[in-house]
Specification:
The protein has about 170 residues and is α+β, with helices and mostly antiparallel strands. Strands 1, 2, 3, 4, 5 and 6 form a six-stranded mixed beta sheet that branches. The protein is globular and about 45 Å long. It has a single domain, classed as Nucleoside Triphosphate Pyrophosphohydrolase (Alpha-Beta Complex). Strand 1 and strand 2 form a beta hairpin. It is built from two helices and six strands.
Length: about 170
């Protein structure tokens, strides 16, 4: 597994704009579409013990898809194929002092899922969630109106062949 570099949600970036790419990794398990969500380590200062869409910070000048593949390889020792982006949102990270723009892509593991390895500094566990299990992802810090939860709902809609409404 590659060595983790300092692309951490706690590295100070006061007043900076940060680009974050995430992979909505999905897989069909006997006719049930599920998504891969790792749980942030309890030791994290920013959103500890919260299930999240995996990904990370894109380096200055780095291609966003290349950076996303790098992040997944660093954090899980796995390779992915990346599809289209389907959601984006912004947030302020009070720990870093930065403003993040997050872009979420559909993705699939190309490495065997049995070989997923967690970095204990980053994640404590992972699970595959079906649409019916989304309420298990929500916490005090991540409610139904959270942009990431909304992106998960949107992903399931699109994976089922649904269409989006525009305002």
């Amino acid at each position: 597994m590659e060595t983790k570099i300092s692309h951490d949600s706690e590295v100070p970036a006061h007043g900076q704009q940060v680009i974050t790419a995430c992979a909505l990794i999905h897989k069909d398990f006997d006719g049930v579409e599920k998504i891969f969500l790792p749980k942030r380590a309890d030791t994290k200062k920013f959103l500890p013990s919260v299930y999240e869409i995996p990904g990370g910070h894109i380096d200055f000048g780095e291609d966003i898809v290349t950076g996303l593949k790098r992040e997944i390889k660093e954090e899980f020792g796995a390779d992915i194929s990346i599809g289209d982006p389907f959601a984006s949102f912004t947030y302020t990270n009070e720990v870093k002092g930065s403003h993040s723009v997050e872009v979420i892509y559909f993705a699939s593991f190309t490495s065997p899922i049995e070989n997923i390895k967690l970095h204990p500094d980053d994640h404590s566990e992972y699970r595959w969630f079906s649409e019916d299990e989304l309420e298990n992802v929500m916490t005090e810090n991540k409610r139904g109106d959270d942009p990431e939860i909304q992106a998960l709902k949107k992903a399931f809609l699109l994976l089922k062949g649904g269409s989006l409404n525009f305002s």
